[in-house]
Every structure is written in structure tokens, then in C-alpha cells.
Model the fold of this input.
Amino acid sequence: MFDAARAHGLPVKLHAEQLSNQHGAALAAEFGALSADHLEHLDEAGAIAMARAGTVAVLLPGAYYFLRDTHLPPIELLRRHGVAMAVSTDCNPGTSPTTHLPLMLNMACTLFRLTPAEALLGVTRHAARALGLQATHGTVEVGKLADLSLWNVDQPAALAYEIGAGALRARFKNGVQHPLAVAAALAPPDPAGSRTVPSRPCRCSGTSRAAARARRCPVRRNGA
Done:
């Protein structure tokens, strides 16, 4: 399969070493894989091969948690050999039914013992590398697409600290702000008398919009 992908110019990725060490990470690195994912049972030879190939290690703490795994990925081994570590959700109904990336930040720190800085790099710069998008995404700098989220936090470590929704304030796609239901729900209350909330039905509860907002219901204020 990797030979066919290479013939068609397609980059490869591989879920490797999740339940046992079958040396998949080394095989993926041999084909210049963008990433090898899971890696709970990765050995040193695999880590060295990944480092040489520039293959990113994608850590998936949601699957580790949901499966009640007890075999941690070798974080110190990856650090020692300079393997970039990304963090993601592994969203799937069988082993990791979540799309909550901020929660994965928290789990990467509490379960896998990443530092908050490592976890943040894992969902930004190293995540872009794992997707082959490092030329346009992953960091805020001149020449890259302005795909980013704004958070109401005092320090980056707070993103990995809070368990739950988090203080997401705005999201931008290619420099254009996109309204988010969750961003509206988490916005601070309007000053008294500054706005009257229309009493329209809320699609998710059938109650008034004012009551829904009081319960932090994720319904957009603009009536959408």
C-alpha cells in the first residue's frame, strides 16, 4: 500500500504500536511518513527511525483514556531523540468518541506528562507538520494563513489546565472571523440594559432564547 501511495505521490500516515510493537513506526519512517500515531509500545529503534525521517509522533490520549490503557507512550524516548510530538483526538466511535481538542491538551499533560508548552506545540506547529501543512499553518507568522482561535486566557498553560469548554472567544479562517455558537455562549453577559434578547425558541431546547442563554446554551445570539 505504501509503495502504491509513493507511486502516486501521496504522503502516508500510520497508526502504529498502539496495542503491541509490530515495528510499524519504523516501516512508516522508511517511507517518509508524515506521522506515526498512538505509539504506546514504540521501541527505541522506531523512535530513532522516526527522528531520522522527520516523522511526527501523534499522541492520542482520548483513545488511551477510553480503552483504559495502562501502557504509556514513551514520552522520554521521543524527547531524547528529538521526535516532534503532535496531539490529536483520534475521533472515532470505537475507541475515542471525541472531537474536543482542548480536552486532549489536558489529557496529554495529566496522563502523558507533557509540559503545557509541549502540548500547545502538539496542537499547532507539530500538528501542521503531521498533516504536511507546515508551510501554511501551525504558527502565526507572515506568509501563513490566518487560521487561528482567540482564547480569553492569561497564559498559554491555561489552555491545558481547564477541563471543559474553555474560554474560546473567536475563530478566524484565512483571516475572516467565523461566528461560533460556543463563542457566543461563553461571552460575558451584556451590560444591564444594553441589549434585549429576543424571546425566540431555542432549537436545542424549545425554551426562550433568554432562558437558554442563562443556562449557557450554545445557541447563537444572532438568531441563526
